[in-house]
Write a structure and sequence with these properties.
Elements (H helix, E strand, L loop, with lengths): L11 H12 L7 H23 L10 H25 L1
Helix pairs in contact: 2-3
Keywords: Membrane, Transmembrane, Transmembrane helix
């Protein structure tokens, strides 16, 4: 990436103020909310399905009963995570 020469740029004052504004934002971090919204449900479903798959063995290799119960467990975990995030807010 070529180095930019800001001294000759007509937008150097506006550009600097944008970066200064972004760097000093007062927004709260959303990392925990993103993890709770995307990572936790996927991991919960994968873990619960893999644990339940042994109990609901199917000759086809896919067990609808295990998937159903894994979805129920995942919904419960998502509900608890949502409740905790709202309480910690």
């Amino acid at each position: 990436m070529p180095k930019r020469d800001c001294k000759k740029c007509n937008e150097k004052d506006g550009c600097g103020s944008v970066y200064n504004t972004l760097g000093h934002s007062d927004c709260k971090p959303v990392t925990l909310k993103v993890i709770a919204a995307f990572v936790v449900p996927i991991l919960t479903f994968i873990i619960s399905y893999s644990l339940l798959d042994n109990n609901f063995e199917s000759s086809k290799g896919f067990s609808p009963a295990a998937a159903f119960f894994a979805l129920i467990i995942t919904a419960g975990v998502i509900s608890v995570c949502s409740f905790l995030i709202k309480k910690l807010k």
